[in-house]
Amino acid sequence: MKSHTRAALATAVAAALLAACASTPPPTDKLALAESAIQRAERAGAQQAAPGELGAAREKLSRAQGAAERDAESAARLAEQAEADATLAEARAEAQRARNALTTVEQSLEALREEAARGGANAPVPGAESPTTLPSGATPLPTSPVPTSTPPGATALPQTRP
After folding, report:
1. Cβ(90)–Cβ(46) under 8 Å?
2. pTM of the entire structure?
């Protein structure tokens, strides 16, 4: 009788283990997240800015897809790693884009400084009238001094003259 009990118990344990393995579904949600992260990285320009990380993400996703049916746990882990690699690739691409934008702004600022140093700030603008020449028929504004008294309840502003 003991051998029948042991055999039944062993059969039950084996069946439970098989059922547990068969019931673990493939990690389709994690695979989808990894695919989405790779697509975002590609749109951000990771092919040029972070080819190593993007390549690692693609390789891990491919391995995860291959393991999805036979080893869901391993596939889930690989998909998570692929997503992390793709996110890193995207971040590196965005950082490169920001560095490029900063360089462009710095170059523009330097060009403006050089122009200002050459007197470009005071150079006449083509088509603009000279500040001392009024259009025909225009009357100049009065040149009376700025009032020095402040109305009651108002705050006086500092006076500056050009």
Report:
1. yes
2. 0.58
